[in-house]
Amino acid sequence: MFILPRNPEPECTPPVIHSLWKPRLYPGTLDTTARVRADLRHDLANTPTLLGLPVLDPDLVDSIVLCASEMFANACEHTRSGEQDGRVIRTLTLPEQRTLRLSVIDDGYRDTGTRPRIPRQRTERDWHEAERGRGLLLIHHLAARWGTRQVVGFPFCEGLGTVLWADFDLPADPDPLSATSTASASAANASAASAPEDVR
Question: Does the pTM exceed 0.90?
Fold first, then answer.
């Protein structure tokens, strides 16, 4: 069961432009969390080369990995992914030019009378005291945007799985013209500063 700190982004998520990473499939056990983190760090290390970006900021990488860890734990603890032979899928996609989307897909809600739902709004103190809400509250603060949607968008398919996704803004392309102009201006200023008074 997902405990949500507040209403996330609407379920109508942007279309994916393309994915440069293969989806990864894991057994739904908490013991697998370390492997999930290691695989994600490996994939993120290749992101700059694939996208033509500078090296990703270590803090951004840490935030993405931490969110993935919480999302994976949620799937294991609150859905059928945590039952025998349960599975969790992790994907990385690009819904927009400079947006990296991390998604975790579970096997669907457990047949225990509790289904994924948005609970009543709580006070800040309530959330600090609610153990189950802390993981998604963390995602809420670290990701640029996040939300959930059904794997199959039909009422009678509600139990087939839920996608929990989180978006992270990537750095923009450096502007080579701007960088060249800045470098030229800096060089000119340095030359002028070092020239004798009678030459200026």
Answer: no
